[in-house]
Amino acid sequence: MTTRAGFIALIGEPNAGKSTLLNKMVGAKVSIVTHKVQTTRARIRGVAMEGDSQLVFVDTPGLFQPRRRLDRAMVAAAWGGAADADIVVLLIEANRGLTEGVERILEGLSDIGKGRKVALAINKIDRVEAPVLLGLSKTMNDRYPFVETFMISAERGHGVDTLRGWLGGELPEGPWLYPEDQIADLPMRMIAAEMTREKLILRLHQELPYQLTVETENWEERKDGSARIDQLIYVIRDGHKGIVLGSKGETIKSVSKAAREELEEFLGRKVHLFLQVKVRPNWLDEAERYTEMGLEFKDGNA
């Protein structure tokens, strides 16, 4: 049996559908999906099997114009993931087309794309007419020498199997990198923290854009097979703590319930989840928080 294995970087603008595509490819929820941009902070690797090929996906943060230290770390992680990959898949939205952000990504690809296969995946194809799709495909391929172009709907699953099949055949020959039944290389503590963060983002909407983070402080395996998970939610000011807790603790209770239910489904067992909110004004400038998120912390503003 000839086995293949390799790394595939999914890159694109924030909200292009990278996390949705990763989850659809892997067949499990390993990356948080929300309608808020920049929700993916760490390079989450999902592992999928396609025949005798093992596809290791690097789900990178969305590429955008960085303004703050956290932004710069996220963008550096995204390009780092692409530069380390065997295959790069640029995901763009059919209904948005060739935006300024996509233009910047194409410029970046001219540097890191050399020597590796770069494919184009046009997502959300159900939102535009066929002539628009064909025009966009031509425009993009005129701008960059993509080896293949795929028309997909990550949310509905259209075209995803075709893309996964192609990726499986293009990866280099070699032994598998992970056990066959492993779907992500992130520690479960981090996946659990990401699930809670997703529920916070969904519940709070615009109230707390990106100024919170979640850390799994303790994970205790109990004799009855259940797990006790203690998590800390860091916010940067007192007013934010009140928003996260909500009137009479309603918000935090709702978030805790939703996160616990999803964790139980993911782990296939009972979970006791305890959330605590702490004000930490400078967490955006603490090296330890970046390490937790799998990002590189750089001193200074450069």
Number of H- or I-type helical stretches: 9
Query: What share of residues are in beta strands?
Result: 15-25%
What is the multimeric organization of the chains shown?
A: single chain
The whole-angstrom Rg is: 20 Å
Q: Helical percent range?
A: 25-40%
Strand order within the widest beta sheet = 2-3-1-4-5-6
CATH architecture of the largest domain: 3-Layer(aba) Sandwich
What is the C-level CATH assignment of the largest domain?
A: Alpha Beta
Rounded mean pLDDT is 81
> Shape, please?
globular
CATH superfamily of the largest domain: P-loop containing nucleotide triphosphate hydrolases
Give your account of this protein's structure.
Helix content is 37%, strand content 23%. The chain has helices spanning 18-26, 69-83, 100-112, 130-143, 160-170, 188-204, 238-245, 250-267, 287-292, and strands spanning 4-12, 44-50, 53-59, 87-93, 117-123, 149-151, 212-221, 227-235, 271-279. Helix 4 links the parallel strand 5 (117-123) and strand 6. The protein is globular, with a radius of gyration of 20 Å. With 302 residues, it is α/β, with parallel strands linked by helices. It has 9 helices and 9 strands. The model is unreliable at 32-42 (pLDDT under 50).
